[in-house]
UniProtKB/TrEMBL annotation:
Domain of life where this protein originates: Eukaryota
Residues in Cns1/TTC4 wheel domain copies: 263-364
InterPro entries: Csn1/TTC4_wheel (IPR044059), TPR-like_helical_dom_sf (IPR011990), TPR_rpt (IPR019734)
Record's keyword annotation contains Repeat: yes
Family recorded in the similarity comment: Belongs to the TTC4 family.
Protein name: Tetratricopeptide repeat protein 4-like
SMART domains in the record: TPR
Organism, as annotated: Saccoglossus kowalevskii (Acorn worm)
Keyword Endoplasmic reticulum tagged: no
TPR repeat positions: 86-119
Length: 383
């Protein structure tokens, strides 16, 4: 059984208060009175007096103010009943709520609910109050859990129903929000805030359903486009690295292949420059266009990429390759070839769905190094 606060306990608190007063008086006798109330500091000083405090105290206040600690200890004395303690915590939580210190309010209401009492109405009030505090700090899931518990204890508690409806609106659970609104409106049919919440929920539900229909339509269209594309790829005899490509088959390039009204595929093509660890994406490479057309546009005379320190990447010096892992070789693509011809060459494997090509400079030391390194990697991989 817990030890009760008796005369000895209260006596020690009283002595602490008396000692504080005596120490203060002693300090007044030793020096002129300079720290008392004045026109400049009276509001600050009186705020330290528990009776006149305008804000709820925090833990530091209790530690530094014996008078406040004494009141706190008496307030939650073990002689009090669980209901009395819960009521005290509720009042404290209400004060925090008024000050918009919602986190402390949540703590106070939680402490109240920990008390072992049988008053269901008080439990409902505490749960609804805590839900309101949770709502203000945007803890909507916690808010919803509290109002659901309150509703279970008292299905016709109007505040719990209203708070639940508002919370469900924030969570965009419009169907459930409408249900809670309708339950509350049976109790208070003309509640302006409730009617407004229901209107917003109805509008939200309609928009949500419309958005879902649009999304479903787009997904269906996307699936059909992908099916048509894959059929066209198979008809062209293109080998794909992995047919189980992700839904977004731009593979990180931000672009996707499309088929125009003439049945021509327009590919996003990736040029890789391993010498400088750089890359270029050609967003729309018509399968019937030749590589030289793009190279002449990308590497114009007297115009160089910022990373090309030696200014050697010129259209006439560039060589295009792809990795042929089946024969373990780097195969060359001639500039006058079309993209359609290149990606149907022997050993070419398409990365879904962005063709990749390696760009090297003819006669450069790096080209020789790259070929040697590729052969070494193949040897390690395949023996």
């Amino acid at each position: 059984m817990a030890e009760k606060h008796g005369a000895t306990d209260l006596s020690s608190l009283a002595k602490a208060l008396d000692q504080e007063i005596e120490d203060h008086i002693d300090s007044l006798e030793k020096k002129p009175y300079t720290e008392g109330f004045s026109e400049e500091n009276w509001e600050k000083e009186i705020e330290n007096v528990p009776l006149f405090m305008t804000k709820s105290p925090n833990e530091a206040d209790y530690a530094n103010n014996p008078a406040l600690a004494a009141i706190q200890k008496i307030k939650y004395d073990e002689d009090s009943t669980p209901v009395e303690k819960a009521q005290s915590y509720k009042e404290e939580g209400n004060q925090y709520f008024k000050e918009r210190d919602y986190r402390k309010a949540v703590f106070a209401y939680t402490e109240a609910l920990k008390e072992n009492f049988d008053d269901d109405l008080l439990k409902v009030i505490l749960l609804t109050n805590r839900a309101a505090a949770q709502f203000h700090i945007e803890n909507y899931q916690s808010c919803m859990m509290d109002v659901a518990r309150a509703k279970k204890l008292k299905p016709d508690h109007l505040k719990a129903l209203i708070r639940g409806a508002e919370c469900l609106l924030k969570l965009r659970k419009y169907e459930k929000c409408l249900d809670w609104c309708d339950m509350a409106l049976k109790i208070s049919p003309t509640d302006k805030k409730l009617l407004e919440t229901r209107t917003l929920a109805d509008q939200g539900k309609r928009k949500q359903e419309r958005d879902e229909r649009i999304k479903a339509k787009k997904m269906k269209q996307k699936a059909e486009e992908k099916r048509v594309l894959e059929t066209a790829i198979q008809q062209r005899g293109i080998t794909i690295k992995n047919i189980e490509a992700p839904e977004d088959y731009s593979e990180g390039s931000g672009h996707e292949p499309i088929i125009d009204s003439d049945g021509v595929i327009h590919w996003p093509v990736l040029f890789l420059y391993p010498e400088y660890a750089q890359s270029d994406i050609i967003a729309d490479f018509n399968e019937n266009h030749r590589f030289v057309e793009h190279l002449n546009e990308m590497f114009k005379e007297d115009e160089y990429a910022g990373w090309d320190a030696e200014k050697k990447y010129r259209a006439e010096r560039i060589e295009i390759y792809y990795e042929d892992m089946s024969s373990r070789k780097l195969n060359r693509v001639m500039p006058d070839m079309t993209l359609a011809e290149a990606i149907t060459m022997k050993g070419y494997t398409l990365h879904p769905y962005t063709p990749h090509f390696i760009i090297l400079v003819a006669g450069s030391p790096f080209k020789d190094h790259y070929f040697e390194n590729f052969a070494r990697v193949c040897q390690q991989m395949f023996g």
